Amino acid sequence: MVSRSYISLLDLASGDMFNFPQTIRKIPQVMTVPGNISKVDSNTLNDGDFDALSSECCEKKIIVANFLPLHAQKDLKSDRWSFSFDEDSLLLQMKDGFSADTDVVYVGSLKVDIDSSEQDEVSRRLLEEFNCVPTFLPPELQKKFYEGFCKQYLWPLFHYMLPMCPDYGNRFDRLLWQAYLSANKIFADKIMEVINPEDDYVWVHDYHLMVLPTFLRKRFHRVKLGFFLHSPFPSSEIYRTLPVRDEILKALLNADLIGFHTFDYARHFLSCCSRMLGLDYESKRGHIGLDYFGRTVYIKILPVGIHMGRLQSALDHPSSSTKVKEIVERFNGRKLIVGVDDMDIFKGISLKLLAMEQLLHQNPELRGKVVLVQIVNPARSTGRGVQEAKRETYEITKRINDTFGFPGYEPVVLIDRRVPFYEKTAYYALAECCIVNAVRDGMNLVPYKYIVCRQGTSKMDEALEIASASPRMSMLVVSEFIGCSPSLSGAIRVNPWDVDAVADAVNMAITMPDLEKQLRHEKHYRYVSSHDVAYWACSFMQDLERACKEHYSKLCWGIGFGLSFRILSLSPSFRKLSIDHIVSAYERTCRRAIFLDYDGTIVPHASIIKSPSPEVISVLNNLCSDPKNTVFIVSGRGQNSLSDWFAQCENLGIAAEHGYFIRWSRLSDWETIPHAADFDWKKIAEPVMKLYMEATDGSYIEPKESALVWHHQDADPDFGSCQAKELLDHLENVLANEPVVVKRGHQIVEVKPQV
Q1: How far apart, in Å, do the first and last CA atoms of the chain sit?
Q2: Which range of residues forms the domain containing residue 205?
Q3: For the segment 191-235, what is each residue's pLDDT rounded down to a tens digit?
Q4: What pLDDT was estimated at residue 575?
Q5: According to a count of CB atoms within 10 Å of the terminal CB, is the N or C end of the chain lower?
Q6: For residue 55, is pLDDT > 70?
Q7: Measured between alpha carbons, how far is 492 from 505 in angstroms, rounded to an integer?
Q8: Same-domain check for residues 522 and 591
Q9: Are residues 332 and 473 in contact, defined by beta-carbon separation less than 8 angstroms?
């Protein structure tokens, strides 16, 4: 059945999905003096009353994710749905980072299909009982959106898997992309039902909803909007293969704050913005910011944490104590190595097993003494890759157990079922080492959980029959390619593809002296316990509040169509010239001075042809023909080029090389700024510039009469910028005693005389 909130792909294709109904304005239009802006654009200082739901002046945190933090089950006898909170959901746990009086509303989909006839009733119940707003995606749309574009295209790409051929990943499908947009639009519609845009904060989660910021920003120009990506963000070399790369980047930049787990992920995102959109970033008092059409989009780098209380409660649960005793009895004093992974191609389970095989092969004395317990969580997606990974896991496990096992001893215990949380905590508490060997993973909280469980609780100590004051120890072997690796400085970091190195790392971990294990554990526990999920949520929200402080101190205009929509944010002192006022002033004056820039005004920056068009020449001649007008071209270009290009303009004045040379008309002589014409410094500067030009592919030197300019706009953005910094420093040193100024501009380094 089709959902009431469904938007058809025909609407998408026609562009109607970007047409939102207008709302009543709360803030009056801005009045200015005649000749300046007479009123603010109708979509500018808006975000006023929305509906009855938003009339209450109560600050809300609206948490938006693909799925709601709920369990749903239908009673077959009563034919009635029952719902309950998912206590393991990160979305639910992050509430601990907000103040007690904060109203938290969740927007997302249910993991079950609800018939259209039941959707109104379910929506009412979920809002009243759980503060949840469900987005009912039609089954076909849900399949194309989640299983199609998200799981078969975005997720592999963000994990560095390119669709080189149909057997290894799906090629880009425009219909799946349209489904992705339609789904994001439905999420935006649901947010609009509950948001008070002047007071509420919206926090969007993960790659399923990356274009959602554009829909919200178009509707509410000053919406307080944060986004956190829980997956890796790939390098620009991978990301740039995405056919809709610019659309997604521009959509993300409509957020006020964008969060990543690691600096690597943030660095890749910033590199993509630089290479594909030409945006530069800078650190502003410790916070990374991107200037985007007058708005500052901030970048947050902080890995998510775990819920300490949830883990400690599980450790104190009677079932955990019972399970610990069973495990101790089963393995009879053998050293346990634990691994907990989803069954998918990126978790590196088979590589971990190969390392275990190598460990037992190289260290015969460990046979019978060491057991790897590998817990396999159910796969979150389906596909041939998952089935192949599962088959390989079972084959290697069987081979290891057949080769190194004997009656009463299995080197690898594979638990391939849904394991209760208390059972996992029991294995964590007993394992001497935890290994996470993923080849690529956004974060992975398994090491954090393992550390907390090894710290234990009083009830777990009783079950293990150890003194509460006894030292705690833990050892971690973690892949370099997971998000939690940078925060675990005491872990043994490994390249999962190097099986020998992983085997050596595991051997080092289980044979390390107890004192060193204790010190590493204490270091990790201090970090994990202080950087929990509440700390993460609180820190992100504080930064979001700071990022939104200037929302109402600037003038805003919405520009662009579709996914190219963005906000142009300007200072309150900005005044837009009125064409009518300019024409009126022009007509009533008897003397007019008109100064025109060249590059970017007369000729577009992106134009390959730098000479003016015949239409421009005609317009300039018309202006110059009026005796009341004095018209000048002011440019940094040289006098020879400008003279040739404007040879047809007899009465046009030219200020070349930023005014170093001036000519009042075609028939007049060039005048020079009166100061010493000592250009001996060029003999020093030019060889240095040539050195950097030869070392920087795409750069070139523009020699002028009064200056030398090194350009790097055609070089690699990162390398060109780096070389420009070095050149600036180099020239300042060698020209320290010369009467010149060395300065860096937009993709240039220039040396010119002091004036």
Answers
A1: 75
A2: 136-301
A3: 999 999 999 999 999 999 999 999 999 999 999 999 999 999 999
A4: 82
A5: C
A6: no
A7: 7
A8: no
A9: no
